[in-house]
Each structure stands twice: as structure tokens, then as C-alpha cells.
């Protein structure tokens, strides 16, 4: 009989989320900053790759990020199915976590260490290789990890608590990742040049991420606390079963729009603070710290709200509030308020939707997984989360394609139009997500 996990096991599991959130932050949110920095007169990174448009207005950094999703289209569901079919005394999911943690952390650093000096062609080839390896080991760790959410949370009340804990952990990872800007400024103050100061910051954060990712590998008793079935279904059939779930499709497509929007704000915060508000880059760290610290205060009220009004209504509210945040971002620097006050206002507006999307989506997927398992007795937990991970990375990649393309319309203090256009793009994707999620039918859970 599988036991319900105690709080200690849930916390051990959530520490792994903090680790992969932090490890992924650089590759998902700092690439454009490093390879296409804001023209604020304060950041002095060399031009490691070509900066201009090369294809239909797209940039090299955008095409690299987006092109990698062709690779992920195969690796995400493949790793998911392989994880679902694996048997191991060590733990069918922990086995993948153990394999993926070290290279994931390593390549999260190497994407920021070009080897060609001023040779932009060599740097581009190196960046392509590093990004492919980064996203591959991202998948190896994250897809099996996410499958544990539903398996560890085999009771509805456990699922909501686990979703809340990993949301807190994800947010802490984001906050720590955002400290790279402040750490860079600190190291610059010791006499280091901008590039090595930034690279040193990223490397320190990667070590912290690795330690956290290994915590569930060594200390979570998967066989004792996780309700699992060993699927014999092949790769293609497993993918077909999950994709035929129309309700789930509405969720993942709306989730894609969320990841486009949130990646734009995460990538753009350094541009919004330095270009639109004229503040120092250390203030970009304030956004993550402030928005997520405030969202923590909302986690308990949101858990109560889920029980009262359901997950669907809160997600739809989250999309609308996020859209309002981006509309406000568009006008930053032109509002009759001091720059710091404008930054604080955006932080306040962003906190509530960040809390909603931090907690509820993982609980929604876990509901779908447990419903499917109860109906046919065969779990495709990793495949469900594999599709979600693929859509997440596709959303991130779309954002990384769109963001630098729009920046070419202006990313300087004298011409900030491109920076403002990124906020409008995120606003539009939020509205699309709201429209799509209206079709989702919430799963009724008992317990």
C-alpha cells in the first residue's frame, strides 16, 4: 500500500523544483540580455554573435532558441514515454533525475561561455550546440520530475499542497536567478569587466541549482510514497492517448500563451528598468524579489479560492490580470509617477497572476493524470507533463524569437519603441490564452 507523503517528503521534492527553476533561468531568461544587451551605456558585453536581422526580421539568438524546439518535439515525448516505461529499484523517475542533474547545471553555464572571441560564426555554432545540450538535459530532468507531481500527490489535498510548495520553490529559483543582475553589478564594482562578472554570477547560481536538484535524488523515497504503474504502451500510442484528450489540449495551448507572456516579462525586466525607467540594472532584481515575495502572501488565499470557486475561474482571472500588467508596462516611463513608484506598481499588478499560474496549472495536469489512470489503470503521467514541458519550451522559444525581433525597432534610451512593443506582444498573448482556456472543462475531484 502506497503511503501518503509526509510534509518532509513534499519539501524534499519541492527543493528539486527550486534547483531546476534556477538552473533553467539563465538559458530561458538571460540569453538575450547577454547576446543582445540593452543600449543603456552601462552594460559592456562584446558582440559575440551577429546582432541584426537575418531572416524575415528574426535574429540569430531568436532563431537558435526557436529552432531547438524541432529537436524538443522528439525528445520531450520520447523521454516522457521512456520514463513511463522504466522500472528501477532506485526509482523510475529518480533514475532520470540522477542522470540529468549534473549536465543540466553544466550546460546552463556553458551557454554563456562563447569560445570564439570576436569570431561570431564560431560563437554561433558553439551556442547552437550548447543550447541543444542544455534543452536536452532540461528535458531529462524536468519531465520525469514533473511526473512525480501526480504520483506523489495521489490524494487531491496532497496535490494542491505539492503544487503550492513547488510554486514557492519555482518562485525562489526565479528570484535567485534574477539576482544575477545585482551580482554582476557587485563583481563589476570589484574591478571585473561586465562579461566575466556576469559569467561568474551565473556559475555561482548553477552550483546552488545543482545541489538543490540532487536533494530529491538522494532523499526522496519514491517507491514508498509515489503511486505508480508501469506502462507497457509504446511511444506513439502513449502520445496519441494523451493528445486525444481534448480538454487537455485546451489547457496546454492556453498554457503555451502564458509561457510566451511570462518569458517576455522575465526577459524584458532588465530593459524595462534600464531603458523605460532609467534605473540601474540592479533594480531588475527587485522585480523578481518583489513580485514573488508578494505572490507568496497570496498562496494561502488562492488555495482557499480554489476550493470555493474552482481552478478554471482563477486561471481566467489570472490571464486578464496579466494582460493588465503588460498594458501598464507599455506606458512605463510616461506615467506621472517617480520611476521607482512605477516599478513597484508593476510588481503589485504582477503578483496575483504569478501566484495563480504558479500553483494551479500543475494541479490541473495532476487532476487529468489521475482521472486517466483511474479510468483505464495505465498511467501516462510523464507523457502528460512531457507535453506540458514541450509547450512550455515552445512558448519560451516563441518569446525568445519575438523579443529580439521587436528590439530591433529600438532598445536604447533615445529610441525605446521596440522595448514597448514587447509589452504589447505579451498583452496580446495573454488575451489569446484567456480566450482558449474558456473552453476548458474543469475536472471534478473528490477527497
Set out the fold topology:
Layout: H1 7-35, E1 53-55, E2 58-59, H2 60-85, H3 94-110, H4 120-152, H5 156-189, H6 194-219, H7 222-225, H8 235-243, H9 246-276, H10 284-309, H11 311-330, H12 339-376, H13 381-407, H14 417-437
Antiparallel strand pairs: 1-2
Protein architecture, described:
With 447 residues, the protein is mostly helical. The chain has a single domain, classed as MFS general substrate transporter like domains (Growth Hormone, Chain: A, Up-down Bundle), CATH 1.20.1250.20. Helices cover 76% and strands 1% of the residues. The protein has a two-stranded antiparallel ribbon with strand order 1-2. α10 crosses α12. The longest helix is centred in the last third of the chain and has 38 residues.
CATH superfamily heading:
MFS general substrate transporter like domains
Q: What is the count of helical runs?
A: 14
User: Residue share in helices?
Assistant: over 70%
Give the strand order, joined by hyphens, for the main sheet: 1-2
Which consecutive residue ranges, at least 5 long each, have pLDDT under 50? none
- What's the CATH class label? Mainly Alpha
If you consult CATH, what is the topology?
A: Growth Hormone, Chain: A
Q: Mean of the pLDDT scores? A: 85
Amino-to-carboxy terminus distance = 18 Å
Beta-strand percent range: under 5%
Which series of helices and strands comes N to C?
Answer: HEEHHHHHHHHHHHHH
Shape: globular
Question: Could you say what the CATH architecture is?
Answer: Up-down Bundle
Number of domains: 1
Q: Give the class from helix and strand content and strand pairing.
A: mainly alpha
Largest sheet: 2 strands, antiparallel
Amino acid at each position: 500500500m502506497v503511503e501518503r507523503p509526509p510534509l518532509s517528503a513534499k519539501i524534499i521534492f519541492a527543493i528539486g523544483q527550486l534547483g531546476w527553476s534556477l538552473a533553467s533561468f539563465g538559458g530561458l531568461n538571460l540569453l538575450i540580455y547577454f547576446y543582445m544587451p540593452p543600449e543603456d551605456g552601462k552594460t559592456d558585453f562584446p558582440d559575440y554573435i551577429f546582432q541584426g536581422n537575418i531572416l524575415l526580421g528574426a535574429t540569430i539568438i531568436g532563431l537558435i532558441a526557436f529552432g531547438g524546439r524541432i529537436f524538443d518535439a522528439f525528445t520531450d515525448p520520447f523521454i516522457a514515454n521512456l520514463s513511463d516505461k522504466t522500472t528501477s529499484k532506485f526509482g523510475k523517475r529518480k533514475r532520470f533525475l540522477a542522470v540529468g542533474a549534473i549536465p543540466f547545471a553544466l550546460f546552463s553555464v556553458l551557454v554563456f561561455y562563447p569560445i570564439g572571441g570576436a569570431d561570431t560564426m564560431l560563437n554561433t555554432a558553439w551556442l547552437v550546440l550548447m543550447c541543444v545540450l542544455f534543452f536536452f538535459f532540461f528535458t531529462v530532468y524536468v519531465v520525469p520530475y514533473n511526473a512525480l507531481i501526480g504520483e506523489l500527490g495521489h490524494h487531491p489535498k496532497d496535490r494542491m499542497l505539492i503544487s503550492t510548495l513547488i510554486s514557492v520553490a519555482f518562485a525562489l529559483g526565479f528570484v535567485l536567478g534574477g539576482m544575477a543582475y545585482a551580482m554582476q553589478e557587485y563583481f563589476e564594482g570589484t574591478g571585473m569587466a561586465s562579461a566575466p562578472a556576469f559569467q561568474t554570477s551565473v556559475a555561482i547560481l548553477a552550483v546552488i541549482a545543482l545541489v538543490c536538484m540532487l536533494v530529491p535524488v538522494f532523499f526522496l523515497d519514491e517507491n514508498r510514497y509515489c503511486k505508480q504503474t508501469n506502462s507497457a504502451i509504446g511511444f506513439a500510442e502513449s502520445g496519441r492517448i494523451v493528445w486525444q484528450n481534448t480538454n487537455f489540449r485546451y489547457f496546454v495551448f492556453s498554457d503555451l500563451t502564458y509561457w510566451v507572456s511570462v518569458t517576455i516579462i522575465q526577459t524584458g525586466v532588465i530593459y524595462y528598468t534600464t531603458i523605460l525607467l532609467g534605473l540601474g540594472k540592479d533594480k531588475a532584481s527587485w522585480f523578481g524579489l518583489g513580485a514573488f515575495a508578494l505572490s507568496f502572501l497570496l498562496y494561502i488565499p488562492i488555495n482557499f479560492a480554489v476550493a470555493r470557486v474552482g481552478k478554471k475561474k482563477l486561471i481566467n482571472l489570472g490571464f486578464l490580470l496579466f494582460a493588465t500588467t503588460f498594458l501598464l508596462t507599455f506606458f512605463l516611463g510616461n506615467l506621472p509617477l517617480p520611476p521607482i513608484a512605477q516599478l513597484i506598481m508593476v510588481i503589485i499588478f504582477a503578483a496575483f497572476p504569478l501566484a495563480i499560474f504558479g500553483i494551479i496549472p500543475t494541479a490541473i495536469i495532476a487532476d487529468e493524470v489521475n482521472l486517466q489512470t483511474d479510468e483505464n489503470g495505465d498511467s501516462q503521467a510523464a507523457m502528460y507533463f512531457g507535453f506540458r514541458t514541450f509547450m512550455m519550451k515552445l512558448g519560451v522559444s516563441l518569446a525568445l524569437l519575438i523579443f529580439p525581433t521587436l528590439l530591433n525597432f529600438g532598445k536604447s534610451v533615445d529610441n525605446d519603441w521596440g522595448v514597448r512593443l514587447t509589452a504589447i506582444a505579451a498583452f496580446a498573448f495573454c488575451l489569446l490564452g484567456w480566450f482558449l482556456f474558456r473552453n476548458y472543462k474543469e475536472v471534478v475531484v473528490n477527497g
